[in-house]
Amino acid sequence: xxxxxxxxxxxxxxxxxxxxxxxxxxxxxxxxxxxxxxxxxxxxxxxxxxxxxxxxxxxxxxxxxxxxxxxxxxxxxxxxxxxxxxxxxxxxxxxxxxxxxxxxxxxxxxxxxxxxxxxxxxxxxxxxxxxxxxxxxxx
Length: 139
Description:
The chain folds into two domains: 1-68 and 125-139, hypothetical protein PF0899 fold (2-Layer Sandwich), CATH 3.30.2320; 69-123, no CATH class. The protein has five helices and six strands; from the N terminus they run αβαβββαααββ. The chain has helices at residues 2-21, 40-50, 81-95, 100-103, 108-111, and strands spanning 23-33, 60-66, 69-72, 78-80, 122-123, 129-137. The longest helix is centred in the first third of the chain and has 20 residues, at 2-21.
């Protein structure tokens, strides 16, 4: 249920951004890493409810899932989530929806290795990103 907390963080961030610039936000586009396994319907519902009585009340909220790619610090190769999914299958099977990667995707290197060199030392962009904002001036 941390989809609600993420939606609230986006709303608070966008509210501050809009007030600082004196603009009305019409649309916010957010992308989530596929590894986060967040429920998009819950995210949309949370945004719809939490935006009431804020400067975002009339805005549209679009959520996209982006592919999760990893960069190995040891061998320098790039690989996809698909390439390590088999390594992660035990985590998914043992913990189901509440697996540690759903709650803390940054722990992925604790459960998987680079498919090229076997290192646990790899990185990825696992943040929720604001990919776009449509707005108009308050003036």
